[in-house]
Amino acid sequence: MEGKQKRFTFEEIFKQNELRIHYHIHRLNIRDPHHEYYQEGLVAMWNAYEKYEPDKGPLATYFNYTIRNRLIDLMRKQNREHEKDAIYLQEQSTRMKDGNYYRRHGTAYPVMQVADTPFPYEGIDSAALWKTIKDELTENQWKWVTYHVVEGLTITAIAEQEDTSREAVKSWGKGAKRKLRRITDEGM
């Protein structure tokens, strides 16, 4: 319709077809207090008017198809946004209400108390074993054992929590592993 003269202006077409937008909003059971869906329907009608090709079918059918699908797309988009918001709010609420987190720079990290950590091997005095291990390691190596091995935190999370680089945390781990191998090879 680019090269041809349009017989009707959009304003005339709009006056004749405005109720189509309301029809589809009602038909899809949409509550539209802020007229977002009405505006989306209006834009859809404009796009259909601009792209309409008379040899492909009636304009009314094209309006119905375009308006309905744009309203459904907007509903789906808003539903996804609401779901993401609800999940995020639930996670944040849980993190802020749960007292077992250490908060730093807006991020919550789990708090671990080594004394409460059970050792998985029965028959071994776990308190004595943990004390021996802790005595052999540096402070940072002990942090790596505590956070990475026992707590299961990632290297990145430990680096953020301790305000250091990932490479530094990896270095703590290498040193700790080396010393732990030596301890186990000696047979404790």
UniProtKB/TrEMBL annotation:
Residues 14-80 form the RNA polymerase sigma-70 region domain. InterPro entries: RNA_pol_sigma-70-like, RNA_pol_sigma-70_dom, RNA_pol_sigma70_r2, RNA_pol_sigma_r2, RNA_pol_sigma_r3/r4-like, WH-like_DNA-bd_sf. Keywords: DNA-binding, Sigma factor, Transcription, Transcription regulation. The keyword Transcription regulation applies. It comes from the Bacteria. The keyword Transcription applies. Belongs to the sigma-70 factor family. ECF subfamily. This is Sigma-70 family RNA polymerase sigma factor. It comes from Lentibacillus salinarum.
